[in-house]
Design a protein that fits this description.
This protein is an alpha+beta fold. It has 19 helices and 18 strands.
């Protein structure tokens, strides 16, 4: 009976559409009438399902691209893509590849409609003859609605939160009730709440979710069991609190007001998440990012989506493996990975060799990037160099005798005609015009199944996880907040570890350093040095998880670094030569793509033009 209910729910939800002219005005079309539909648990729960459904289902969520391709970490090979335009500085209030205003406010409407109808306990029954289960399921779904409102609020905040020309730090117009058709004109009078008011609303919603939801779903319970894995949990709400507090304390958003207190709040909420969810750091393994399954979902994936197809591989595998090489990691990102001894490649103690650039590197590099001579398929084929040069081939020759200068006649071979053959490798533009522009391909999230794609109709699928919220985020947030509030070695009151303790542990686990980390020790004298280390470690840990773009902006880091690549050739003796891999020789850098973020406005995003035109009370971010 339970399954039938869900089927009916999805059928009814499919009929609930928002009018094109005004997304605040829901339309219900069922053969039974609105009031009857609102008494059925399926249609009512379906409102909530729509708020889930608006969350992108795959990690390359920006039109098939990663947001990292609009930073110095990567480029996209699709020149007509929205992320390519974003990376070129072509964002506008009319065309914003990361705009989510409509999706968020439409989701708010679904959420509030669910809350309104679900609250009527006399009309909507999830369990007609079981009051205990009816209350349990109603509460769980209500908890999910609070979390989803917090989630969409956070999405609005990180995309549209910013500083106005007045210097005020603003968020989004907060809405906590369903807007009826007769109330829609009120939308035209909305104003943006302050950034801090939005933070407080998100924290309140997370606390409401935490008070009702389980930390995780497990067992065979039809209400709180494994069947609900992937839905909102208290664990996800705890980590979301850590995220919003960290954003609020960051330089781009704190407004210079109560900065110490905001960093302390971020530290305490991050510690709370770690303690309540029992989060412990373990680096993502190779199989975690290439071949996860529903049965082996990493504990770290606190809130995630799931898909079973080959679209990631189709977009991102090299052309030699029948992919489209869409995402090209950069030399900038590769350079950011330290050596296995923990030293950056720019340090003489690292042992880095630009002509053998991938030996003894941080293991996370191989989990993230496909580089030259690296196996792509599990036990299968690998990449070859970009340009493999074969020795010249003699086409015609003749033997003659010549005087060697001492009166002796010696035989020599006179070459009449020859040619030099350049055999293009699987990683070269000569092999396929779609090959990587940077010399690198994406490894993270890509299945390593053999013959994943082929030139015939038969293609394989693979299970993929999109971790929207990872437990590790709370650890890195605590690391960052502790350094800002108490310095590298200080411990914020109420917390258990210092920034130094945390980063030493994560680097030890990631690099296998054990109890000693000389480079970290050399950078622990001040908050500035430690901040740079934390920012780089976060860059590596969350590469291609769509964090870097927003992190750079909240930190107010320079945005105009040119994206670089590398080139590799192989001579007739099989020796590789690398170009662009020596960070000390800027005159030899291979420049791939400029980042034209040359104005302060690029740290914030414009509100949608349509909303600004309709509502004169909305104040835009500065520069827009």
């Amino acid at each position: 009976m339970k399954n039938i209910r869900y089927i009916l729910g999805f059928m009814a939800v499919a009929c609930l559409l928002f009018a094109c002219e005004d997304y605040m005005e829901p339309k219900v079309d069922t053969p039974y009438g609105d009031e009857f539909a609102y008494t059925l648990p399926g249609p009512v729960e379906g409102f909530l399902t729509n708020a889930y459904g608006a969350i992108p289902g795959q990690i390359d969520r920006y039109g098939g691209d990663f947001l990292d391709a609009a930073t110095g970490d990567a480029v996209t090979n699709q020149f007509g893509a929205g992320v390519f335009a974003l990376g070129a500085g072509k964002m506008s209030s009319v065309s914003n590849p990361i705009g989510i205003w409509d999706a968020a406010y439409t989701s708010f409407q679904w959420i509030h409609l669910f809350q309104e109808k679900s609250a009527d306990t006399a009309t909507v029954k999830w369990w007609i003859s079981d009051a205990v289960n009816d209350s349990l399921e109603r509460n769980r779904l209500m908890g999910e609605s609070y979390f989803l409102r917090a989630y969409w609020g956070m999405e609005l905040l990180r995309v549209y939160g910013g500083v106005a020309e007045s210097g005020d730090v603003l968020g989004y117009p907060i809405i906590t009730e369903f807007v009826k058709e007769e109330e829609k004109d009120e939308v035209l009078n909305w104003t943006r709440n302050t950034y801090e008011e939005c933070v407080e609303q998100i924290l309140v919603d997370c606390d409401s979710a935490i008070s009702i939801l389980p930390l995780a779903y497990s067992g065979s319970s039809v209400i709180l069991g494994n069947a609900h894995i992937g839905r909102a949990t208290a664990s996800a709400a705890y980590v979301l609190k850590s995220r919003v507090a960290t954003f609020a304390a960051s330089p781009a958003n704190n407004g210079g007001v109560d900065v110490q207190a905001k960093w302390e709040r971020a530290a305490l909420l991050s510690q709370e998440a770690i303690d309540r969810v029992n989060i412990s750091y373990m680096p993502l393994s190779y199989t975690d990012v290439t071949t996860p399954t529903l049965a082996t979902t990493p504990k770290d994936y606190i809130f995630r989506r799931y898909h079973n197809n080959n679209s990631l591989e189709n977009r991102n595998l090299p052309p030699a493996f029948w992919g489209n090489a869409r995402t090209n990691p950069s030399q900038n990102l590769v350079d950011a990975f330290p050596m296995a001894n923990g030293y950056p490649i720019t340090d003489p103690a690292s042992g880095y060799d630009p002509q053998d650039p991938f030996v003894n590197r941080d293991p996370r590099l191989r989990n993230t990037v496909i580089y030259n001579n690296e196996v792509i398929e599990n036990g299968g084929r690998g990449l070859e160099a970009s340009d493999i040069i074969a020795e010249y081939i003699v086409l015609e020759a003749d033997t003659t005798e010549v005087d060697d200068g001492t009166g002796n006649m010696v035989e020599v071979i006179e070459v009449i005609s020859d040619t030099i053959i350049y055999r293009k490798g699987l990683d070269s533009q000569g092999y396929d015009y779609r090959c990587s522009r940077t010399g690198y391909y994406l490894r993270k999230w890509i299945s390593d199944k053999v013959a994943m794609l082929t030139n015939v109709n038969q293609k394989l699928n693979a299970e993929h996880m999109y971790p929207i919220i990872r437990g590790a985020e709370a650890i890195y947030n605590l690391m960052e907040a502790s350094n800002e509030a108490a310095g590298p070695m200080g411990i914020v009151p109420g917390c258990s570890l210092s920034a130094y303790d945390l980063i030493k542990h994560t680097r030890s686990e990631s690099l296998g350093l054990g109890s000693t980390d000389p480079y970290l020790d050399s950078q622990s004298g001040g908050a500035n040095e430690m901040r740079a280390m934390i920012q780089n470690e976060r860059r590596l840990e969350f590469a291609f998880e769509n964090h870097r773009y927003f992190d750079m902006r909240r930190w107010m880091l320079p945005l105009s670094e040119t994206v670089r690549g590398m080139k590799v050739t192989q001579d007739e003796d099989g020796i590789y030569t690398y170009e662009g891999t020596d960070p000390s020789k800027s005159d030899e850098f291979i420049e791939v793509e400029e980042r034209l973020f040359d104005a302060d406005r690029y740290y914030y995003h414009p509100l949608p033009y349509g909303e600004m035109a309709k509502n004169k009370n909305l104040i835009n971010n500065k520069g827009w």
